[in-house]
Amino acid sequence: DPGDSFAITYGGSGTNVTDIVFHNSQIWVFNAHNVTLDHINNTIEDQRVGSGNGATSIRANSTYVTVKNSYFYTRNNGGSSSLVMAWADHCTFDNNTIVVEGEVGNMIYLTTYNVDVPSGVLANQYNTITNNKIYGFKEPAAICWGLVISGANNLIEGNFIDYGGTGINAQWGQGDFVNNTYRNNVLINGSAFNAPDGSTVYNNSVAGAMNTGKNTIAYNNTVGKNLTVGIGAP
To answer: Per-residue b/e over 91-109, b at no fewer than 16 CB within 10 Å?
Structure first.
């Protein structure tokens, strides 16, 4: 229960939200389906919005939710993520701009934390994260990564990440990673790329270091710093 929020729950499945500006508001899509958020603006400034869940959060077995052509600005919200999927399948984040400043969490985050995923269910499958622009800090921040993945069969393509820390990473500590594809992403200003186990990684431009997990296929990438290949990677 996020408390006060703009919420779309199961009964709101099929909702389209267009051209609305939110200020210091949590957007909460919970077990809803076939929802579209298009040309929205969610600006969080110096308020603790999204604690533990994310300022804009698609979660709890939501499916076929699209967030596109939208703008997310987060500054000093106590370390919470900006744009989140938490047990969301067949969802799309496309052509969004995410800007962060100060004490914030991850910018785009596919997570299995703080959501009740039933035993035996693999959360966060068949999602597409495409053509987003992510702007972070010039220096790394301890609790902030650019684009963080858990789950399987996800496509991460054509994203632009301007961040001095880790631009793409796997969720820390838990999660299954199977058959995620990363292609045609551009990471600048020293941004690093950590591909989880079982990934396919190609045609990416990475200004910083790249690390691949085991059983990962990686080819035709441009890497500015060192490349580390995980055990068992072809």
So the answer is: bbbbebebbbeebbbbbbb
Contact partners, residue 123, CB within 8 Å, separation at least 6: 86, 87, 88, 89, 112, 115, 117, 150, 151
* Model pLDDT for residues 119-131, shown as the tens digit of each residue: 999 999 999 999 9
What does each C-alpha distance from 210 to 69, 163, 193, 198, 227 come to in angstroms? 29, 14, 5, 15, 5
Find all residues with CB under 8 Å of 160, minimum gap 6, and list them. Answer: 132, 133, 134, 185, 186, 188
Decide if 151 contacts 174 (C-beta within 8 A).
no
pLDDT tens by residue, 175-200: 677 899 999 999 999 999 999 889 99
- State the pLDDT at residue 214: 85
Distances (CA, A) of 60 to 15, 172, 174, 180: 17, 20, 17, 21
Our CA dihedral for 36, 169, 134, 121, rounded to 10 degrees, sits at: 10
What is the C-alpha to C-alpha distance for residues 151 and 191, in angstroms, rounded to an integer? 23
Both structure tokens of 14:
């099929």
Tell the burial category of 21 from Cβ atoms under 10 Å away from its Cβ (0-12, 13-18, 19+): exposed
Tokens coding 87: 């047990």
Instruction: Indicate the pairing of strand 210-212 with strand 192-195.
Output: parallel
Q: Residue 229 is which amino acid?
A: V
